[in-house]
Write a structure and sequence with these properties.
Layout: H1 26-29, E1 32-39, H2 59-79, E2 81-89, H3 94-104, E3 126-130
Parallel strand pairs: 1-2
Antiparallel strand pairs: 2-3
Helix pairs in contact: 2-3
Length: 134
C-alpha cells in the first residue's frame, strides 16, 4: 500500500492480506470492496535484473509449485464482492502468463494509474484488470 499512498484519496480504507493456505477471512469476504489489488506469488522472472539469485532455481519446478497457490488465490478473489479487481505478477514468463490468463479468462491488459505527476516503474510487470461489477 505504501507506494500507492500518495495516489489514493485520504479517506480510503485499505487492508493488506498475506496469503497462507487458508481462505480469505470471512470478515473480509463478506464486505463490498471498490478495488482489490492482488500481487500474486510468481516466478519473479520480470525481476531478474535485481534478483539474479532466481537463476539458481529450476524455473520449471518453481512454475509448477506456484500454479496451485495462484489458482487458489484467484478462485477466492473471484468470490469477493468487488467492483474492480487488478491482478499482477512480476513475471514475463510466457507459460506463467498463459496459465494466469486462462484462470482469469482474459489476456493481460495493464495500464498504470500514472496521472503524469510521477513516473511509475513497471519493468517486468504483467497485470490484468477485471472489471467485475461496473
Amino acid at each position: 500500500v505504501g507506494a500507492w499512498k500518495g495516489l489514493l484519496p485520504e479517506n480510503i480504507e485499505t487492508r493488506v492480506i498475506a496469503w497462507g493456505e487458508d481462505e480469505i477471512p470471512t470478515d473480509l469476504s463478506s464486505r463490498r470492496w471498490d478495488i482489490v489489488l492482488a500481487d500474486l506469488p510468481c516466478s519473479g522472472s520480470g525481476t531478474l535484473h535485481t534478483r539474479p539469485d532466481l537463476l539458481d532455481q529450476n524455473p520449471f519446478e518453481r512454475l509448477d509449485s506456484l500454479k496451485s497457490i495462484q489458482e487458489k488465490i484467484i478462485t477466492s478473489l473471484r468470490l469477493l464482492d468487488a467492483k474492480d479487481l487488478f491482478v499482477s505478477i512480476c513475471s514475463v514468463d510466457p507459460e506463467e502468463i498463459r496459465n494466469l490468463s486462462r484462470l482469469l479468462g482474459k489476456d493481460p491488459n495493464f495500464s498504470s494509474w500514472n496521472d503524469g505527476s510521477q513516473e511509475l516503474e513497471r519493468e517486468g510487470l504483467t497485470a490484468w484488470h477485471l472489471g467485475l461489477r461496473l
